[in-house]
């Protein structure tokens, strides 16, 4: 049996109710703040030290009602790093749009399907959020030591999920959070946080698999 969620359900952010068809809307209901307080702060109810490098990272959270599919599965979320602006118009246009949405250009952009969020239970929603956070890791040097920039902040990089990350998500939310059958051994020990049922795909993962 799933454990009781460690936060009031009423505090979980929701997509804007007036989003039209195929729309995109920046988070205005505190999703980013909720994620930080829930998963990144050390006293958060679902704190995960594996995301410690993201505590100070500027993350832009975006809702969308656009339907995307990959390998015949509906995409529920996608994560990407925002690169520096180049001389190409497409890059300048992307940075301009980000400033229009957030007032600045974030280092990380995470898009969440509003359609999925509205019907997902709390555990499935939390599993999706952590799944996307796991896609941003801290770069390491040739000695496997974490890298930092000249200002002392972690240097971030995109990463695919390895067995360790999948095991952690399974242990926290249950086997169905990842859809990986060979994690049954971990799941049999019982989830440490809650049982998630996320049947939709992560766009970042599916893109990596196709590549």
Helix-strand makeup class: alpha/beta
Main sheet record: 6 strands, mixed
| Form type | globular
Question: Helical element count?
Answer: 7
Task: Please describe the topology of this protein.
Elements: E1 24-26, H1 31-40, E2 59-64, E3 69-70, E4 73-81, H2 89-102, E5 108-113, H3 114-119, H4 122-133, E6 136-138, E7 156-158, H5 163-173, H6 184-187, E8 201-202, H7 203-210
Q: Overview of this structure, please?
A:
With 211 residues, the chain is an alpha/beta fold. The chain contains 7 helices and 8 strands, in the order βαβββαβααββααβα. The chain has helices at 31-40, 89-102, 114-119, 122-133, 163-173, 184-187, 203-210, and strands at residues 24-26, 59-64, 69-70, 73-81, 108-113, 136-138, 156-158, 201-202. The strands form 2 sheets. Strands 1, 2, 3, 4, 5 and 8 form a 6-stranded mixed β-sheet that branches. The model has no long low-confidence stretch (mean pLDDT 83). This is Putative phage metallopeptidase domain-containing protein.
């Amino acid at each position: 049996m799933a454990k009781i969620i460690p936060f009031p359900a009423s505090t979980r952010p929701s997509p804007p109710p007036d989003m039209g068809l195929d729309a995109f809307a920046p988070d205005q209901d505190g999703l980013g703040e909720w994620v930080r307080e829930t998963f990144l702060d050390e006293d958060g109810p679902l704190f995960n030290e594996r995301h410690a490098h993201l505590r100070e990272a500027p993350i832009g959270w975006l809702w969308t009602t656009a339907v995307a599919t990959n390998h015949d599965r509906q995409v529920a979320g996608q994560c990407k790093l925002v690169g520096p602006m180049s001389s190409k118009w497409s890059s300048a246009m992307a940075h301009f749009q980000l400033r229009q949405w957030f007032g600045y250009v974030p280092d990380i952009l995470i898009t969440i399907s509003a359609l999925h969020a509205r019907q997902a239970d709390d555990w499935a929603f939390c599993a999706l959020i952590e799944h996307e956070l796991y896609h941003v890791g801290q770069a390491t040097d040739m000695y496997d030591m974490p890298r930092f920039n000249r200002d002392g902040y972690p240097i971030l990089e995109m990463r695919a999920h390895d067995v360790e990350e999948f095991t952690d998500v399974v242990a926290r939310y249950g086997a169905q959070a990842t859809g990986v059958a060979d994690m049954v051994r971990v799941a049999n020990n019982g989830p440490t946080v809650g049982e998630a049922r996320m049947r939709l795909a992560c766009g970042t993962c599916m893109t990596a698999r196709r590549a």
